[in-house]
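#struct-help
A.M.: can someone run this one for me? Single chain, 207 residues.
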Amino acid sequence: MKRIFILLVVALNMVFSYAQTGSQQNEARKAFDKVYNMVFGPQGSTLRYDVNIIGLYKTHGTIWYKGKKQRFSDERVNTWNDGTTAYMVFRKKKTVEIHEANSDKKDKYSGKFKFSLDDFDYSMKKEGADLLFILKQHKKAKGTIKEVRALVDAKTLTPKFVKLKVALFWAKIKISNFKSGGISDDMFVFPAKNYKEGYKWIDKRNE
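D.P.: on it. Structure tokens below:
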């Protein structure tokens, strides 16, 4: 009888621990979804980014999002993506490349950072005035991102810093000047007339 009682206590502890962990994961997932929607939601957003991929690749610039639309500008290229077609203007080479919006061939890093929000187990913890989200990939997930660490302001949920683990290396992204909402659709319309003279156009949509 004593053994049965001990087994029952152990089993109840296991169930309680599992339920508590599940509750904590759900809370972390809901909070992370709020941050994600602030960035990628239909209201649009903009931010400045500073990227460092294990010291081998560094860049910085400004990016705008609105649903499937995207625009960014860094030290070498300006891009407009209206959700159907992506235009990449390489200022130094004076070329305009045209791609399908979702093509991984737009640059050598596009295909390396893929994931679904359902790929991960979620947790979060307080760090001073901030919240640190830790996302670890499920074993059966098909995305390329193995782990995400995202630091946000605890009160406003404004993103500050993101680390992404792909294979064995980390990409570090510092975020500043973040704004959610008030992004016009006109921001993502490619101003073709500005690049008619002196630019070479290369259509890569069928490659």
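A.M.: thanks! The longest helix spans residues 2-40.
D.P.: also worth noting: The chain has one helix and twelve strands.
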